[in-house]
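From the shared-data thread, chain only:
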Amino acid sequence: MAQLKDDCFAFGGELMPLDDALARLKDSVGPVMGMETVALREAQGRILAEDVKSDRNVPPHDNSAVDGYAVNFDDLEADGDTRLAVSGRIAAGHPLERPAERGQAYRIFTGAPMPDGEDGGPDTVFMEEDCTSEGDVVVLPAGLKQGANRRFAGEDVKAGDVIIRAGQRLRAQEIGLAASVGRATLKVFSRLRVAVFSTGDEVRDPGGEADEGCIYDANRYAVMALLEGLGCAVTDLGILKDDADAISAALAKAASGHDLLVTSGGVSAGEEDHVKDAVEGLGQINFWRLAIKPGRPIALGQVDDVAFLGLPGNPVAAMVTFLVVGRPLVLLLSGAGDVTAHHFPVEAGFDYKKKKGRREWARVKLEINAAGHPVAMKYHSSGAGILSSMVEADGLVELDEDTDRLEQGMMVPFLPFNEVTGR
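Structure, as tokens:
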């Protein structure tokens, strides 16, 4: 079982480009949990802990791709219709119980095994709608290619193939593929155990009273939802008051039963920001001053040997920073092999200016133009506290460090929320 490397989050100096930060994560962080075997029905969203190898061909035998008639191609007339007696019926799960004979046609259904016989048996299947039935005789039109509508054994998977690699986050398609080779269970990494808390005397839980000067805790609930979408087992530690001893005690207790501790806000240099001192007293903390907007300051550290992630306090900054830095950290700790978030080119429907040297994300909604192409329309406010902008948006347009001006009509990389939220 891999562990966090010593000082894996250590960094000092000028603003760090995002790509350098992500490369550092990939080099320094590995899975920190054990493994377990789960039934296929419980495998959705889990991360595979070992390669899955097939011990059989899929399909296991040559079979028909359609309902129709199986024949030997060499029995067909080259220039006209062919009339053959129908001398057998083959359905899926019910193979022909005798060798097929030359000069005969066999009624066959989708998925049914191609019969063996003289010269290897029938090798071509006519679709029934292309044929004419005359009692016990079928009339087959000319022009079909040899081997048509025949699926071969091992066409999908061959015995001995590795069909799913360790580190894959399991989706419906991987689960279906595992089932197709007879696997009822899969070995997966245990769920990453993550403790989430907020700090602040002004922060209140939804559903309670919020006195003047107080705010409801949006960040904690958004971050917990993001973590659960990535398959984590999340513990809600609630809201901790601005008390250094209480925060230190809560962190120490949480570290004994979790793999990652996450907070938002409370890690700056303010007099009431006690999280930083608490983490440093129990382990270490490093500020990654990333060249990004929103969310430049992000704190990474360790409480004992448990990873700590401190997100910015503004809700949009907390969510965006989680998506671009927290998500890959979580997936690497969880055992994922590929943590790449895929972007897709779309047309910009807005003008935008930014500083060179930092990466920025604009919240956008996609609209379809008259030509049928997606166009990214920027939300009217760029404030890091405007959480409603995340609701209205479909995703983020990413502007790299070398870009200083975006003009309407240019192609830009679009990161859809459903690519990175895990849902």
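Residues 64 and 150 are 5 Å apart (CA to CA).
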